[in-house]
Design a protein that fits this description.
The protein has 117 residues and is an all-beta fold. It has strands at 2-7, 10-13, 18-26, 31-39, 46-52, 57-59, 67-72, 77-82, 91-99, 104-107, 111-116. It is globular and about 45 Å long.
Amino acid sequence: QVQLVESGGGLVQAGGSLRLSCAASGSIDSINAMGWSRQVPGKQREVVAIITSDGVTNYADSVKGRFTISRDNAKNTMYLQMNSLKPEDTALYYCTAEVGMDGIDYWGQGTQVTVSS
């Protein structure tokens, strides 16, 4: 099993920046890929960014050029640097991990990001 704990959310004005962190523990060596997803009540959940164990990254079109995903394997921590934030980025952001040969998904508890206009 893998445990994921997010931090770094908060309130920021449009155009500002935030950095989210996700600390992973448990069966770290079994993690295939990690990512960030976000959820707005009443809307479909969106996968924001993914990073594989090889460091390959992929982003949603809505955040390309503004968000950067990274991971520090020595600290078992993943980050999401969010720049040029927009009100439409307001959401509950979740850290996710795909684990093991079966590709089981694990989720953190979420951290709220609110961008004011």
